[in-house]
Amino acid sequence: MVLMSVGGYLVLGLLLDGPASGYELGTRASRAVAYFWPITRSHIYAELPKLVDRGHATVQHVVQEAVPDKRVYTATDAGLHAFRGWLDGFNTVSERARQPLQIQMHFAQHTSAEHLLGQLDQWEAELRNTLVLCQELLAEYADHAGRSLTARFAINRAEADLTWIGEARTTLS
Description:
mainly alpha
């Protein structure tokens, strides 16, 4: 079995939700998984030919009028099998979230409180956007246990992070 990056498997998983162009997969990713695993459109576009080469997807050239032609990708049975194998063998215990802001906080003595407060403001705005999106997704995913759990996780995480931001503001002020 040829191993792929997590990003490759993520693209394959998105493709298992139905045929799509690279652009459509980017839109799907920004709505469905970006709150827990951000992936760029360029990464998606880079993974699609690899999926085809591995036999995990097929591609169909679609001619369009008035807009550029597109390639529509479809997951294969082999792709589904590979994805299931990856999910079953995926080691989540070793996964740790990276928090770039925590680097700045850890070394706060080397920067200004004003800079850190500005960073907190930006992060808070992003978290509030995540909360809105995930509340919408929670309603949308009401009949899908796994997806509603990821939305609930993101909501809980964002709420915890917002609590921490309040504590950090108090400490820095």
